[in-house]
Each structure stands twice: as structure tokens, then as C-alpha cells.
């Protein structure tokens, strides 16, 4: 029940590879990683292919990160999201404002 | 009219690191009852949201405490009770948090922590909150969604 976070930076683009579960326990470390990246990089691309659980605490982190990108004029992209996780973004209306690449959705 | 059911009670410290443990218990019980993969995922999210609220609340009050989770296993449904045994928080405030993100709102007004109750309501068939002694969230999910009357605002507050 942990979250692994791997960041690789290349030419103003940060690729953030996540694996595991995002909940109230792991969300703070995700937030600590993502927010500085929105300031120092032009694009923050988060790969959620191996995230098999997320709840509102994770949604909250991505909302904070999105706000931070507006502040620092950078871009946040969420890719390879599993269907169950995507559903939560859909239910809450966040698909309307988040940059989610649904063409490469992974999962079931 | 005494309906037979099994009752499973789990008590954990009011700390975020135990939320995942309760998720595992939840999927074990729901899987045994025959819930679908999708329903089990819904249950895991809804129950985690309730516990997250209880943990945050307990932490704000005392920084410690326990959370009790009760699973009522019925023939046709699972009832889950999440009780924080801290003081009660303002129910009006809690209900204000309910609702989807509205597109016309400013991005600055996006709630970062306000989706919890909204998700519980969206993912469960019935949700009740009792705030008489601490806060108890009672959530119900039926084994077969068809034939179950469910509509409208399902949050009720018995006094």
C-alpha cells in the first residue's frame, strides 16, 4: 500500500512515473514532488499506468498541481490512466479541466 | 422481521497509514459476498473517503484516537458503518462540501479536499450520517443494482 514516484527530467519536461495507491497516506509525498516540478519545468507529465487505486486525496493533489501550473505558466498532463481512476475524474467533473490523454488510457 | 446478518468489526488507529488496511478488509468481505470488480472498487473508494474524513477530524481534535468500522453482511447488501469517536463536526459544513465541481467556477475556487462526501454519495446506493455522538457514516451498497430504488439526494440526517 505504497506509492512509488520516479521522476526523470529532460529538456524542460518532467516525466513522473507513479505506481501503487494514492490515498490520504501517500498523497502528501506526491504533492511534495509535483508542486516544485510545476515551477521548475515547462511540462509535467504524470504517467498513471500503474496506479491501481486513487481517491479524493489524489484528486486534490492534481487540483493543487493544476493551480500551480497556472501560476508558473507550465503545463500538467495526465497519461495512461486506468479506467477506474479515470471514472473518479469523470464523476467529479475534473475531466473538463484536466489535461487527460484518454487516447492512451490503460487499465482494464 | 429480524433479518439475519453477519457483523464484522474492525478498529484501527486514526492514522492515514491504516486506511489501506481497511481497504483490504473491505475488498475481502465484498469479494466473499460476490460483488463485481467494479462494485468492489467503488466500495474501497467510498470507505476510504469516510475513514479519511474521520482521520483528519481525529487529528485536528487530539492527534490520536481510534476509528471503528462495522460491516453488516446481509443477503442482498453490505452496510458499512464508519465511526470517528471524536467530537462531532458541523453537519451544515459537511453538507456544503457536497457537489460536483462546477465548470463556471474560478480555478482558484476548486476544492482540494471537498470531494470526499460527494464521492461517497456517488458510489454508494444509500448514505446516512448521524452526528449525535461523534460522527457515524452509514453506507449501503446492494449486491444487484437492478430492482433497487435509488435516486436523488441520498444523504439523510436522522436526529
Describe what this molecule looks like in 3D.
The complex is a heterodimer of chains A (108) and B (159). Chain A is globular. Chain A has a single domain (3-104), classed as STAS domain (Transcription Regulator spoIIAA). Chain A has a 5-stranded mixed β-sheet with strand order 1-2-3-4-5. The longest helix of chain A is centred in the middle third of the chain and has 17 residues, at 56-72. In chain A, 37% of the residues lie in helices and 34% in strands. By secondary structure, chain A is an alpha/beta fold. The model of chain A has no long low-confidence stretch (mean pLDDT 92). Chain B has a single domain (6-147), classed as 2-Layer Sandwich (Heat Shock Protein 90), CATH 3.30.565. Chain B is 34% helix and 25% strand. In chain B, strand 4 and strand 5 (135-142) form a beta hairpin. Chain B has 4 helices and 6 strands. Chain B has a 6-stranded mixed β-sheet with strand order 1-2-3-5-4-6, with helices on one face. With 159 residues, chain B is an alpha+beta fold. The A-B interface holds A 1, 21, 23-25, 53, 55-57, 59-61, 63-64, 66-67, 70, 84, 88, 91-94, 96-97, 108 and B 16-17, 19-21, 23-24, 37-38, 41, 44-45, 48-49, 52, 55-56, 100-103, 107-108, 110-116, 118-119, 122-123.
Descriptors:
heterodimer; A: 108 residues; alpha/beta; Transcription Regulator spoIIAA; five-stranded mixed beta sheet; 3 helices; 5 strands; globular; B: 159 residues; alpha+beta; Heat Shock Protein 90; six-stranded mixed beta sheet; 4 helices
